[in-house]
Amino acid sequence: MFIVTAKEMYDIDHCTMQKIGFGKLLMENAGREVARKISQRARVTDKLLVVVGPGNNGGDGFVVARTLLNEQFDVKVLQAVPDEKLSEQVQFYKNLYHACGGEYVAFDGDGAWKKAIAEADIVVDALLGIGIKGAVRKGLDAVVTCINERAKKVLAVDIPSGLPADEGLTDFTAVKADETIIIAAPKISTFLPHTAGYYGKWEVVSIGHPAKLFAKSATRFIADSNYFQRTMPKRNLDAHKGSHGKGLVIGGSDHMPGSFAMTLRAALRAGAGLITAASTEKVIDGIANLTPEAMYQTIASNDGWLTTGDLPLDGKDAVAIGIGMGRHADTAKLLQKAVNASACPLIIDGDGLYHLQNNLHLLKQRKHPTILTPHMGEMARLLQVDISELAIKPFHYAKVFAEKYNVYIVLKGRFTIITAPDGRQAVNTTGNQGLAKGGSGDVLTGIVLSMVMQPQSIFQALCNACFVHGMSADLQIASGHTYYDLLATDVIEGIAGVYRHFLDPKNS
Ligand SMILES: NC(=O)C1=CN([C@@H]2O[C@H](COP(=O)(O)OP(=O)(O)OC[C@H]3O[C@@H](n4cnc5c(N)ncnc54)[C@H](OP(=O)(O)O)[C@@H]3O)[C@@H](O)[C@H]2O)[C@H](O)CC1
Ligand SMILES: [K+]
């Protein structure tokens, strides 16, 4: 499923209507699809109020109202702007609604319209769509406020009114919808920390746009189960342990051994062929029995912190560094060495990202893929911007950084954004609040390490790693765990369920 900016959506709409020739049909399709979804949710006894505004979102609203009216629902329209504000196309659909006997609630001074909003069982929000510019203007802002304060249930058409479609905007007043029926493709603001909540539950309806137009105009997509099933490499019968990658994990410290152990186990559970763990003697003594399938190698350390020294990089297909490594000055030299010497994909996570802050110049010299797996705080530090600034424009910042330093970025969050050095971006929507626990990131790093060693592109590997990680947590919640008790180790043990469910249907 593609993700679009407002401009990309307008370009696709315009081409569909003008070049392909859909004309007014597109709005009829949009309204009818939204009406179909509403009719599946509404009881025949429900009072429905469709609030329409001046633009094409309002036009959708008139089609919704007419369709529901003709299906015998108790529906009325609250037109929040005078007729002269309606575009020609919207007026056309208003006329059809009127001709079918459609009724209105007057948007007048005595406030009866507020009572209508309060008394409706469902308010359909077709006030404003992706054409919003700036904060909702006087007059309509009172409608938004009334809906938020008095509506029993709100179903937004395409986007909650007042919400920006794109990233970077914080000055807005918007409808807080219970559900949003998104038209054609989710907009960027569906996946931002400060705007996602306004959509409520959301689903997308297709209204007839040619698929090829999205492929041409949109630059982002949701890496969903279809993508996973299409791109995840199958295992063939004559595979041997060397077929699925020889990975190296460098990390741990006498003071933080646990997280490192989870990365190893996650990499093996996700399907890595061979994993070597390089850490201090004490860490290895403490964890070797937890994952006997891994191989262990002691590397140089000083007072329990890893320091620079020989690294078993030869013959490795991918390396992960940083997990539980600590922030000791000596460890920075180890990070520098790994960046300069690893002749294979290098994943930098956790404290490796801390040490990378003063070594970004080394990244451009690398001839092999580099993958950073920061959470928002780590990314903000690498960018040297405030985390609040990053949070309102994560797509933008991740793309700028990836292109500047020629790296892949897995920007972890409620919606993890995967970015390639050429600027391509994907969003992972699996996962849940049960992952907000220590160790979740270490597990993801292990899955990433395994995936980048399989016969797929790095970008596909990162999308699939995030999908498996989040889906494992989702399946664990569905099969008895709760958001409270879910542990990072449960996510490791849940990986099998994801593979069975999505890759081997007969076994699911
Ligand atoms: N393009 C198509 O055929 C289809 C579009 N779909 C639906 O249409 C909307 C986008 O429609 P658009 O008309 O571009 O935009 P809006 O419906 O959001 O409304 C724009 C009008 O709102 C006024 N406006 C703009 N900013 C504000 C504000 N801050 N406060 C109040 N009013 C505002 C604006 O007035 P101007 O004076 O600026 O012109 C416009 O009158 C899309 O979201 C879909 O729902 C169909 O679904 C598919 C076909
Ligand atoms: K709307």
TrEMBL record:
Domain YjeF N-terminal, chain residue ranges per copy: 9-215
PROSITE patterns the record matches: YJEF_C_2, YJEF_C_3, YJEF_N
Positions of the YjeF C-terminal domain: 224-502
SUPFAM superfamilies in the record: Ribokinase-like (SSF53613), YjeF N-terminal domain-like (SSF64153)
EC number: 4.2.1.136, 5.1.99.6
Co-factor(s): Mg(2+); K(+)
Assigned protein family: Belongs to the NnrD/CARKD family. In the C-terminal section; belongs to the NnrD/CARKD family.
Described purpose of this protein according to its UniProt entry: Catalyzes the epimerization of the S- and R-forms of NAD(P)HX, a damaged form of NAD(P)H that is a result of enzymatic or heat-dependent hydration. This is a prerequisite for the S-specific NAD(P)H-hydrate dehydratase to allow the repair of both epimers of NAD(P)HX. Bifunctional enzyme that catalyzes the epimerization of the S- and R-forms of NAD(P)HX and the dehydration of the S-form of NAD(P)HX at the expense of ADP, which is converted to AMP. This allows the repair of both epimers of NAD(P)HX, a damaged form of NAD(P)H that is a result of enzymatic or heat-dependent hydration.
Subunit structure: Homotetramer.
UniProt name for this protein: Bifunctional NAD(P)H-hydrate repair enzyme
Biological source species: Tigheibacillus jepli
